[in-house]
Amino acid sequence: QVQFEESGGGLVQPGGSLTLSCAASAAISTRYYVMGWYRQTPGKQRERVATVDLSGMTNYVDSVKGRFTISRDNAKQMLFLQMTSLKSEDTAIYYCNRVPALPAYWGQGTQVTVSS
Length: 116
Description:
This protein is an all-beta fold. It has strands spanning about 5, 10, 20-25, 35-40, 45-50, 60, 70-75, 80-85, 90-100, 110-115. A six-stranded mixed sheet has the order 2-10-9-4-5-6, with no helix packed on it. It has a four-stranded antiparallel sheet with strand order 1-3-8-7, with no helix packed on it. The mean pLDDT is about 95.
């Protein structure tokens, strides 16, 4: 099955940190694509929060700038999201996908809950 698999989520207190990982199935050659992390909360549209292009240049939505860091390992077909200074509003299911996203590639996501 061609898709991404996210991991690393969990329950963390406000101000805490988590690192998410994303593994691509062998059929997806992620090294050729801009990659991104997305998140979704109930009742809201999925939001793209961070991207990394082929040269490693990154971009972030304003709400996570200075707190989140996206990185990629093309050799291992992996994508990462380091999250620090987490806030309650970061609570969401986090997904990875190409940019722009391909619907067929959505995985199950990983739940991040920020709560005391």
